[in-house]
Amino acid sequence: MMTARDAGLVACRTCASVWPQGRARCARCGSRLQSRDDMSLQRVLALLAAGLVCYIPANLNPMLITRTLGKTQDSTIIGGAIELAQHGDIAVAGVILIASVLIPISKFLAIGFLTDGFDEALACPTEDSARIAVATQNILREEAHLCDVIDPLGGSSSVESLTNELE
User: N or C terminus of the chain: which is more exposed, having fewer CB within 10 Å?
Assistant: First the structure.
C-alpha cells in the first residue's frame, strides 16, 4: 500500500489540500505544511498507558459513599452501580456502568487496535504482519467506522445529572 509520504505528497492539516513534499506553506490557506509526526505512535501509546494506569485505581478505589439510616458504606463505581440496581434504579446503574466501564474500555481497545503498536513494542514487525496490521486498521476505520463510533460515546454529562438527582 502506497502512502502519501511514499508518493512525495503532504496534506495541509487545515484545509486538506495536497501538495508536493518540500513546500513550506499551503498555497490555499497559508498554513504550515508538515507530514505526519514521526513520534506520534509513541505519544499515543504513552497516553494510552497513562490512561490505563489512571483507569485501574479509579475503578478499584471507593468512589461512592452511601448513607442509609446512619450507616455509611463505601463502594467502588461498579459496586455502587450494583447497589443502585439492587435498590431498583436499574437505568441509572446501567448508565453508570456504560459510561464508567464499557466506554473507557472500548476506547482503550479501539486505540490499541488503531495504533497496532503492541507488536512493535515486542519486536520489529515482519512485512506480512505490517500488511495485516494496515488491512486491519483500514477495516476498523473505514468499514466498521470504529473512529466514528468511539468518540461520540464519551463525554456524556447525563451521568452527573442522574447521580445528582439521587441526592
Answer: C
